[in-house]
Amino acid sequence: MRKSRIALLACTLAAVTLTVPTPASAEPAVTVTVNARAGLESAGDAAIGVNHAVWDSQLGTDAVADLMKNAGVQTMRYPGGSYSDIYHWETHTAPGGYVAPDTDFDTFMGGVQRAGAQAMVIANYGTGTPEEAAGWVRYANIEKSYGVKYWEIGNELYGNGHYGANWEADDHADKSPAGYATVAKQYAEAMKAVDPTIKIGIVLTTPGNWPDGIVGSGDAGTWNQVVLSIAGPSVDFAILHWYPGGSSSAEALSKTAQVTDAVWLARRQIDRYAGKNLGIALTEINTGYGQNTQPGALFAADAYASLIAAGVFNIDWWNVHNGIGTVSTVGGHTDYGDFGLLSSGTCTADGSVCEPALNTPFAPYFGLAMTSRFVKAGDQLIRAGASDPAIRAHAARRANGDLAVLLVNTDEAASKQVSLNYAGYSPAATAQVHTFGNGDTAITTGTGSATSVTLAPNSLTTLVLRPAAASTRPATPGRPVASAVTATSSTLTWPAGAAGLKYEIHRQLGTISEQWGETTGTTFTVHNLTPGTRYTANIIARDGSGRVSWASPPVTFQTGTPTAAPCAVTLTDASNWGNGYVGSIDITNTGANPVDTWTLAFSWPTAWQQLGSGWNGTWTQTGSSVTVSNADFNKVIAPGATVNVGYVGNYQGPNILPPLFKLNGNLCTTR
Fold first, then answer.
1. Which of 105, 121, 321, 556 has its Cα between 20 and 30 A from that of 140?
2. pLDDT class for 14, splitting at 50, 70, 90?
3. What are phi and psi of 268, to 5 degrees?
4. Reduced to 3 DSSP states, what percent helix, strand and coil does the chain have, rounded to the nearest 5?
């Protein structure tokens, strides 16, 4: 758009903690825990990406390609955001927009190849045709043998005026989600007829971001519901964009906490409406504060690592070049309000402030470069966390036995002394250490301790560790699948490995793993779970010699509510406007006796949800807990009868509806 045998494994951590003496006046050491038994998702070969635009005259130059290669960029997106829906590849024109010289598709691909990257190409949906898109695939992959794998169908088409806001070109008479999905399916069919090996992506709205949740006039559901239902079975991945905003460094950097829930909601929508497993690509992202200074670098590294851990296979920073905006001072350095990774060398309109020389890297460039030092294609992210909320910790294990730890110190004023603990991994004493501090113009690489490090204020640090001793592990088990999920149980099943293995089933509790049990088979039923709760679990294989594998990819599932209860609750998102909604709650007495005087209680699932107002009862919120008590006219609920209450819920992130309700302390069935 924009230019659980139950054992807390943390109690048996490998003995690698180093006690670091500190002066009496110093802050206590921060403890970072890395749990190699708690596996997350793995990085692919397209994870670290950037956007290019045809109005950028530097798009295909050797200088830019070399800078992208040096940063470890794996993917380059073309031809540029909303320009994609006015750009015609064959004539290299964009009616109504500016196209810079030497930015045609072949020039772009030359830069991609020089950088050792791959392309993400956006077919023109807004003013193009399926035939034009198929022609582009033919030219790219049949005639020129470029091997372009990833293709998007349009850009942000929900911004075509259907919901009111109109920034995206769309010449189609039907601008509804059904209109887009129907034609996008035609695009996918035409393009795959030319090259069946390509992967096609369709435009979705990001959970918690406008117009997510809104049902337009005449639509059968939200944009995502309709698009996934119609086009989902014909494509390969879903496209999200994320500009989380923020008016300060602290606010902007807090937004990465939304990643896990946003991706989880997107996957639930995909599973429900597309009926197949689609990949997720976040093809535009930028920070809301400090676009050219250290907050931008910290946001970039933290966001990319969080998104990869959640299973997003491609993340593309907006943009390589963009141009000067509102100038300010951030953290003692000039921020040009430029959404580019590299300087455009431009000045303000009055000439009072000019950017550095053309192609000078801004701080977020080094955020991407640090991410590429932290995680490589094929690496599996694992759980990591810190005792100080100012420290963001990420970790990844590599096939060769190495481990990498990325530490983000978001404290703008204080250094942090960090002590590192490792569960399921014993590192050698020394580590390679990469650092990038506030105002730095390069990443510094040196050698340090594997168990202790000092983090400068507002800094990025990556430790790359070797194992203390070479070891042979059993093969990593395949991803488990959850089935027969009830309010209190779930059955996990996974592919069989070599003969003679035992399998441990582990639940992730932050950086702690709880062993649910073990078996020599490939299925395990977990009991005594908590209703309405999200669980993430891994499988670890153990051979006869006691050697253990790396953790499997994770499975995440949510338990339901009791099927037999004295009450039932139905919550409906009755009307949504993108950052708030009307919640309509039907409370049904499913018991044999009248309920005389009642209170319904629930809790918000996230920290960014709150009660705005309510009706048909007395509403209160304390912390994340919400209650509504009866009014005089609805204090008695007869057996089989239903009363309705409602509220306005406000949110500033993924809007996960409350899963559990209690009536007078009794857990209800959620329908």
1. 321
2. very low
3. -65, -40
4. 20, 35, 45
